[in-house]
Design brief:
Helix content is 64%, strand content 0%. The protein is built from eight helices and no strands. Helix 7 packs across helix 8. The termini are far apart. It comes from Paenibacillus turicensis. InterPro entries: RNA_pol_sigma-70-like, RNA_pol_sigma-70_dom, RNA_pol_sigma70_r2, RNA_pol_sigma70_r4_t2, RNA_pol_sigma_r2, RNA_pol_sigma_r3/r4-like, WH-like_DNA-bd_sf.
Length: 197
């Protein structure tokens, strides 16, 4: 069944089919919310906000119109608004700085040094993304992680397509600039005052 067919059936009263919609999108929405919360060190709220997103979507499903946007775009918009609402609530609350991010497990054929370097690189990229302004971070995550097209991202963020392209361009430049010192390998040149022979 397509999303449209499922939604039609749910609107007709087959509410048990909503679990299928959740199954299709839960992992992606949870990952998106997690990334949006990471810079504020609020990742522990990700599962609750994911559940809240699906609850809000269910309650508003009767007003969903496929003419306006696809279900996934509509769902991401609800997720983003739910996260922004939570971030506004949490601004005045002190939250402990806990690092509970996912770290890839190295396969057994990788030597420990390689696994450590890979983990360090992944963490550096995440840190760079988390330092981005909210709209740049959201646009980059939706494009790179969720493989959405510019029009979908524009709908979710309430921006024009050209504004989304600009956000993504600036986000990529910022990430690249943040990572350059880390990945820069100096070329050994002759030191000043040394004579070549």
């Amino acid at each position: 069944m397509t999303d449209s067919q499922l939604i039609h059936e749910i609107k007709e009263g087959n509410i048990e089919l909503y679990s299928e919609l959740m199954r299709r999108y839960q992992r992606k929405i949870l990952a998106f919310i997690y990334h949006m919360l990471k810079s504020a060190q609020l990742e522990l709220f990700a599962e609750d906000l994911c559940s809240e997103t699906f609850y809000k979507a269910y309650r508003s499903l009767h007003s969903f119109r496929e003419i306006d946007a696809s279900f996934s775009t509509w769902l991401y918009t609800i997720a983003r608004n739910t996260v922004l609402s939570e971030l506004r609530k949490q601004r005045s609350v002190n939250v402990p700085l806990e690092e509970s991010g996912y770290v890839p497990v190295a396969s057994s054929d990788i030597v420990p040094e390689q696994a450590l370097l890979r983990r360090e690189k992944v963490n550096k990229v995440r840190e760079a993304i988390n330092k981005l302004p909210e709209k740049q971070r959201a646009a980059l995550i939706l494009r790179e992680y969720d493989q959405m097209d510019y029009q979908e991202i524009a709908t979710i963020l309430g921006q024009s397509v050209s504004a989304v392209k600009s956000l993504i361009f600036r986000a990529r430049c910022s990430v690249k600039n943040q990572l350059e010192p880390y990945y820069y390998e100096p070329v050994f040149e002759q030191y000043e005052g040394m004579k070549s022979k």
